Amino acid sequence: MACNSGNCQSNCYQNEQVAQDGSIPAPTTCCSDDGANNQQQQGVCLKCKVSPPISSGGGGSGDEARFCGDCFRTNLFGKFRLAVTSHAMITPSDNVLVAFSGGVASRVALQFVHDMQQRAQRNYEASKDRSLPVFGVGVAFVDESTVCSISNDEVEEAIQEMKSTVLELAPPVKQFHVVPSVSLYSSGSSDEKDRLMKLIGAVDDVTGKDDFLMHLRMWAFQKVASENGYTKLVLGLCTSRIACHVIAATVKGQGYSLSADIQYVDARWQVPIVLPLRDCTSQELNILCRIDGLKTLQLVNDHPSGINGLISSFVHLLQEENSSRESTIVRTAGKLTPFHFNRVSEINDSSVPLATLRRQKRYNLKPQESISSESFCPICNSPVINSDLPSCDSLKPFKFSEFAASCCPSCQFQILPQDQSSMKEFYSLLPEGLVSRSKHKDNDNLDMLREQVQDCLLSNSDDETNSSKRNALSRLVFFLHGNGSFSSSPSTSCFARSDDYYMVQLPVMILLYIDPITDTSFN
């Protein structure tokens, strides 16, 4: 189409007239901006406009066909660094543990964390006062040869390759931890391997067994991180893996806890988990490993089974049809309201740069933007609604009933045995750490409630403070037994009842009405 302008220098109007006359049109330059850009950028990188793209032969697609190796690496590392700095994932005082499996995602995560550490080290050496510390980095690998069909020789060979990969990284030196799956048992008995194999074999559901192995792997990472003083656990979960998890969790009935698993930060664990590769796809990570020559290995069959395998294949087909499907799934799920633990605590460290503090305040969740949850599944650590948990009174009075009642519905359906005899055996084979979580849940809740009402408890000193607290309690009792509203000057005669009454009833009232019991509530 001609631009129909006399000032056009491309002769497009003249060429249209020639074409109408039937003569052979002369080569022209299209007035369209897109066409000009396509011709100008043909055979060169879209960003630097100098180097050829990675797949210059035209066989590639996406970023591989648009960017050169250096620009592609810069863009991918920029996504990683933006996620880290915006959500304060890594601070100078942190000691970071990278969960390493030898795969593509964990290899890129290790490389990017190492690059950040090197930059911090150079800044530390260049500063005069050297007041800015350099965060530490460790690497951990979970040895699952006990529960997987793989020979010891293959495991040892893979571990040696991982060690060499970590040692080849430039200083600072990074400690490499090999964590056997049986290390979850702290008893030190000789039958730990048999117990673990029987525990896995007790799960009949294929999908449940796959999920249970993943949960045990996470608990193993948490164990080594807490025992060695690490403050953050870096996982290599990318957009592709998270997109599969979004659909899988929805199918399994884990919609309530879905938003907790897909955020950048997950602080419900003893050692908070961070996902710096959340905005990177598996295709991008594979390209980076290829152009940088990063060594990867696949020790065990990483292809999921059951529901997880079907959904992985389904998402892969969607991605082939449209390269933005995975990102769309993750962005859509990201609109779910996160939980209060999907944020890092406010940083009060003077060594943290001011720009990091500003970004944390900008991207961190506000209390009104999150969901509060105080109960977690002892197996998968997913947040659960107390009303959804079955009452222990409705179960048989076996020792395992409290554990079964505290699990989320998904674990109850897919992992826990359905008959009581099998459930009793399953409970006896569990690692001590998982059992203790359900045992001490009630004690932890009571400690938390006591901490919340600590300011309202009467002490042996400070009569003026006690008088204020006693007045607050008086107003509470007057409200509970009165007309449903607080009086401006409640009568102290409400304390005239017997001591036995208030010894039994008043603590219950306090626990049921925690929020109103603050000195500021009655001003």
TrEMBL record:
GO terms for biological process: protein urmylation; tRNA wobble position uridine thiolation. Belongs to the CTU2/NCS2 family. SUPFAM superfamilies: Adenine nucleotide alpha hydrolases-like (SSF52402). This is Cytoplasmic tRNA 2-thiolation protein 2. Keywords: Cytoplasm, tRNA processing. One of its GO terms (molecular function) is sulfurtransferase activity. The lineage of its organism: Eukaryota, Viridiplantae, Streptophyta, Embryophyta, Tracheophyta. It comes from Linum trigynum. InterPro entries: CTU2 (IPR019407), Rossmann-like_a/b/a_fold (IPR014729). Plays a central role in 2-thiolation of mcm(5)S(2)U at tRNA wobble positions of tRNA(Lys), tRNA(Glu) and tRNA(Gln). May act by forming a heterodimer with NCS6/CTU1 that ligates sulfur from thiocarboxylated URM1 onto the uridine of tRNAs at wobble position. It is found in: Cytoplasm. Pathway: tRNA modification; 5-methoxycarbonylmethyl-2-thiouridine-tRNA biosynthesis. Its main location: cytoplasm. One of its GO terms (cellular component) is cytosol.
